Amino acid sequence: MRDPYLLAAGLLTGLAIPASALPHLSVVLPENSRFLWDLKQGSQAIVSTKIIKNVDLSLPELSGQAFQPLKTSQLSEGEKNIPSVPEFGSPGLPTPTESSLNPSTQATTLLLTSGNQLYYQRLAALKTGQIYTRVDSDNLQSLWESIKKRQLTYDDWKSLLALEARAIAQGQGPNHLSILVGDSLSMWFPREKLPAGKLWLNQGISGDTSSGVLKRLGAFSATRPDVIYIMAGINDLRKGASDETILRNYRRIVRRLRQAHPHAQIIVQSILPTRLPNIANSRIRHINIQLTVIAKQEGANYLNIYSSFTDMEGNLRPELTTDGLHLSQEGYDVWRTALQQIEYKLTQREK
């Protein structure tokens, strides 16, 4: 029987991104950065003096190493208390096959209606030896329907994310890895929209603040990411935190990530605009300016996608949001384009 918690995930191959189709993206890099983005509106991506129209990326499959099941003594108290999921061979649960562990096509869309549904699908995927970003939608739907659900807490989500991070840490092998860290905006990033060609670990929790993110960075300290994307702060503003608190937490987040992952590219993403009357977008813009400075001082990269989400009045474009704060599918398409550009440029740097 495969380990009920650890990953035996496959890796998608192939990535083709027409650079001319990508919108303007502003990126501020640290002085010691070894690569440069030049992505002006309507232009093609330029690396040195070459004009690159597209790129095909192929990465090796997972090493196939065997995993040893986690013993109860190895789990934290929070991990011991996560809801039970049926073992392999239980009615309604598929037995993992080589094809399911190494899918050859990107995941198809599965409609999720609540955070509880997303949580239990991810937990069920772990119990079948997979990460939810690598499981086909049909399997996720059957797993969701087979589980007895209960009300979830913040600690439940922290435990789940820690288990996923542990799975990635032991199953990554030589494969490339990117990590999303943040709140519900990151948590709800559709897995089928994540750029293909590498592993992804989603470490977003709904309602989380910059302080909460700072406290749980250790959950994925054993992973070996190439890139770590950070976006937090909007819930701080909703809960009345000061700008100074948000900026101080960001500086600490970058420093801890730099210490734990010295070889990773750390990407500080701009806080997105909203359509909420109690949060001034002018304040968000001010904080973003300060985040640019922090990123440069701490040796991180700054990714400005704020302007890609604003309308003529400086508010979050209505077609990109579901409620004035959270993103629609079209909103995630805009964000995905930004991530594609980053992943594309990192690939070029490795050549």
Order of helices and strands: EEEHHHHHEHEHEHHEHEH
Q: Fraction of residues in helices?
A: 25-40%
Between the first and last Cα atoms, what is the distance in angstroms? Answer: 40 Å
Per DSSP, the total helix count is 11
Radius of gyration: 20 Å
What value does the average pLDDT take? 73
Percent of residues in beta strands? 5-15%
Q: What characterizes the major β-sheet? A: 6 strands, mixed
Shape call: globular
Stretches where pLDDT is under 50 for at least 5 consecutive residues are 1-25, 29-109
Explain how this protein is built.
The protein is α/β, with parallel strands linked by helices. The protein is built from eleven helices and eight strands. It has helices spanning about 75-80, 100, 115-125, 135-145, 155-170, 185, 210-215, 235-240, 245-260, 280-295, 330-350; strands at about 25-30, 45, 50, 175-180, 200-205, 225-230, 265-270, 300-305. Helix 3 (about 115-125) crosses helix 4 (about 135-145) and helix 9 (about 245-260) runs parallel beside helix 10. The longest helix has 22 residues, at about 330-350. The model is unreliable at about 1-25 and about 30-110 (pLDDT under 50).
Which features would summarize this protein structure in a list?
351 residues; alpha/beta; two-stranded antiparallel sheet; 8 strands; globular; disordered N terminus
